[in-house]
Amino acid sequence: MSELTVFERQGLGYRLFAESIGTEFRVSHIKRSSGTLEGDRAVSTTMPGIKTVDGKLHLARFNMTSSQTRSSLGSSSAPSPASWPTRSWAHARVC
Questions:
Q1: pLDDT at residue 75 above 70?
Q2: What whole-number distance in Å separates Cα of residue 37 and Cα of residue 18?
Q3: How confident is the model over 34-73, as pLDDT tens digits?
Q4: β strands within 12-68, DSSP E
Q5: For the chain, what percentages of helix, strand and coil (3-state, to nearest 5) are there?
Q6: 16, 18, 32, 89: least buried by Cβ within 10 Å?
């Protein structure tokens, strides 16, 4: 079976869906202001064992032009395999 990955423009932003990991990334309400590019970011997942709030793993305003912001998101969102079943990302990111 081949992996389905979809990248598309949707509404005021973009959507990336990776079927193999049951995860959707959305960026919406994108605007340029004072030399920065910002948008609202949402990550949803159906991966078993991952704690979410209504399927949402992460919701935040995001400065897309800041490499520090992008790298801190990547490191904070990457769990160690041992923590997958018990780590509550929803409380750290959504609440």
A1: no
A2: 24
A3: 888 999 999 999 988 888 888 888 888 888 887 765 566 6
A4: 13-18, 23-33, 36-45, 56-63
A5: 25, 45, 35
A6: 32
pLDDT of residue 85: 46
Strand order in the sheet with 56-63: 5-10, 13-18, 23-33, 36-45, 56-63
Tokens of 65: 């032009």
Which of 93, 14, 10, 17 lies closest to 54 in space, CA to CA? 93
Residue 11: Cβ-neighbour burial (10 angstroms; 0-12, 13-18, 19+): exposed
Instruction: Assign 76 a pLDDT band (cuts: 50, 70, 90).
Output: low
What is the C-alpha separation between 38 and 36, in angstroms, rounded?
6
- Residue whose entry in the numeric block shows the structure tokens 């991952």: 50
